[in-house]
Amino acid sequence: MDPQTYLRHRRIFEVGLWVLLAAINCAGNAITVNIDMANSGLDVARWEPWVWECSSGLTWLALIPLLLRFDRRFPLRVGAFRRSVPGHLLFTVPFSLLHVLGMVALRELAYAAMGGNYDFGGWAEAWGYEYLKDVRTYMSFIAVVYLYRFVLRRWQGEAGFISEGREDIPAEPVADRFLVKKLGREFLVKVDQIDWIEASGNYVNLHVGDRVYPLRETMAGIAQKLDGQGFARVHRGAIVNLDRVREIEPFDTGDARAHLTGGGTVAVSRRYRQALKERLA
Question: Where in this chain does the record put each HTH LytTR-type domain (predicted)?
Answer without folding.
Answer: 178-281
